[in-house]
Structure formats: C-alpha cells, structure tokens
Write a structure and sequence with these properties.
By secondary structure, the protein is an all-alpha fold. It has helices at 10-17, 21-29, 48-62, 67-77, 83-118, 129-135; strands at 37-38, 44-45. Strand 1 and strand 2 (44-45) form a beta hairpin.
Length: 141
Amino acid sequence: MNTPQTPMTIGAVAKRVGVAIDTIRYYEREGLLPEPLRRASGYRSYDEGAVRQLRFIRRAKDLGFTLDEIRDLLALSADRQRGVKAVKKRAQERLAAIDERIAELTRVRDGLEQLIDACPGHGSPEQCPILRALADQEGDA
C-alpha cells in the first residue's frame, strides 16, 4: 500500500480510484485535476491529494453532477467563507433537476404504457396506436 509520501504512477492511481488511465488524463485536460509533477523519466507522479480529488470527482459524477458543476464544487470546497452554503445550493439545484427529470420520465412511461395497453398486438400497421403515435406530426400521443 502506498503511503502519503510515496509518489504513485498514473496506473496505480487509476487502480486505487477505479477509473481508467484515460479518464485521469481527460480530467487533467479539463482542469478538474492539476497537472502532476513529472519524474526525471517523464512519467507522471501523483500523491494522495490526487487520489482524494479523483474520488471526489467520481462521487460527484455518481450523484449526477456535470463536469462544469464538479469544477465549481471543487473551487467551492476551498472557499472557507461561503463554500458550504454554496455547495448546499448546488446540491439543491441538482436535486431539483433530478426531480424534474424523474417527472418527465414518469410522463413518458405513462404515455408509453397507455400506447401499449391500446395496442392489440396484431392487425395492420396502420391500425397500431404505437406506430400512429410515432408517425403523428402533431405529437398528440
């Protein structure tokens, strides 16, 4: 196991966090993770701070935050004056967006369920309510 003082390779960090090496490079390019120091050999050298930051990014993604929102959360996490209040506000906004998406998916599900219930499952395609709804240019499904 690596100690906080032991530098790690990108592969070791990827394995510890459970992400792909390319994901780490991508986060570096996107500015979510600072460019690591380079060894004399040119290899990237990471520390525990990179592991913590990658875990933060991964958990935030799991909660549905976008990369821009994660960038904002990372900046706010260093703001000792307003950070916690602003982070709570961002989390509330994310929750509201999730609730909106759930409501939208519920409407879609209910509409699809009605179409399935109305379809006899046999006969001519012109009589199929599912196909008629998909072909309807008005969108009155």
